[in-house]
Design a protein that fits this description.
The protein is α/β, with parallel strands linked by helices and about 280 residues long. It is built from nine helices and four strands; from the N terminus they run ααβαβαβαβαααα.
Length: about 280
């Protein structure tokens, strides 16, 4: 018997009597939402190798879950979760089995068109919620590109909301989200523990030297294929579901506050001031 027929495995309407998923909503719900200054979250991530012990969808699973839980927590105005953009920029992981990537040009075009479509529907408060390091800079570029069309989106990479947790509560990967390391493995252990293969965990050193942390703080090369034998950046042996819960809840609370402030803000206009005034 099929108990969950949602296109992305959510089935919120069946379980909760309401849904926050764009693709599950009815026409009248969109029209009602538009009357109440809604926020739309677009989860962005990737499908790529995350070492021998993690599934391929780590980066999109975190932002999808974070977006949905945030939307469910806010009841005073609508927060809608758009269909996730699961593909990302992960060319540096090609060669590691399981990785699927897009080119820079394709990614910019795809995410820009999604945001244009959401905007054309009347939604004026859009968040690009990113969970993949390779997307971090490009979603900022997309936000700048769209602003020239008077389409405003807010780019957020989730771990940048909670640097204090990454720095203060780590045992190994201090201040870094890593890649299949302490923090990403912890989030998976919290959200989907059955998808972690503990027997295959590894923590490898870098194959080649890099700049010192002091230099990397302000410059560095684009990422290449992970410079570790098994594609893990960090130490998954220090991961735990408790750490995952801590990071997830901290990020959720920060995102809730972002949504509430965004909801209160007026809609910006590019040509309101400066040389582009009509």
């Amino acid at each position: 018997m099929v108990t969950d027929a949602s296109v992305f495995g959510a089935g919120l309407r069946e379980r909760l009597g309401r849904t926050v998923h764009w693709q599950e909503m009815w026409r009248h719900e969109f029209l009602d939402a538009l009357e109440r200054d809604p926020v739309v979250i677009v989860p962005c991530g990737s499908v790529e190798q995350h070492g021998p012990h993690c599934p391929m969808d780590v980066d999109i699973s975190h932002t999808q879950a974070l977006a949905v839980e945030t939307a469910l927590a806010i009841t005073e105005f609508p927060v809608i979760v758009a269909p996730p953009v699961w593909i990302g920029l992960t060319h540096y992981n090609m060669g590691e089995v399981g990785t699927i990537t897009a080119s820079v040009e394709t990614y910019i075009a795809l995410v820009s068109e999604i945001c244009r479509s959401i905007w054309a529907n009347g939604f004026r408060r859009i968040i690009l919620l990113n969970g993949h390091g390779g997307n971090r800079d490009i979603i900022r570029v997309i936000s700048i590109k769209l602003s020239e069309e008077d389409i405003w989106v807010l780019p957020i990479t989730y771990w940048e909301m909670v640097p204090d947790v990454l720095q203060q509560r780590a045992e190994a990967d201090f201040g870094s989200i890593g890649h299949g390391g302490e923090w990403e493995t912890s989030l998976q252990l919290y959200l989907r523990p059955t998808l972690i293969d503990r027997a295959r965990m590894v923590a490898d050193p870098e194959r080649e030297p890099n700049f010192t942390p002091e230099i990397l703080a302000f410059t560095g090369f684009p990422e290449r294929r992970r410079e570790r034998e098994h594609g893990v950046n960090g130490n998954p042996f220090t991961a735990s579901a408790e750490k995952g819960a801590l990071l997830f809840e901290a990020a959720k609370e920060r995102l809730i506050e972002v949504c509430r402030q965004y909801h209160r803000l007026p809609v910006w206009q590019y040509r309101q001031f400066g040389s582009h005034c009509p």
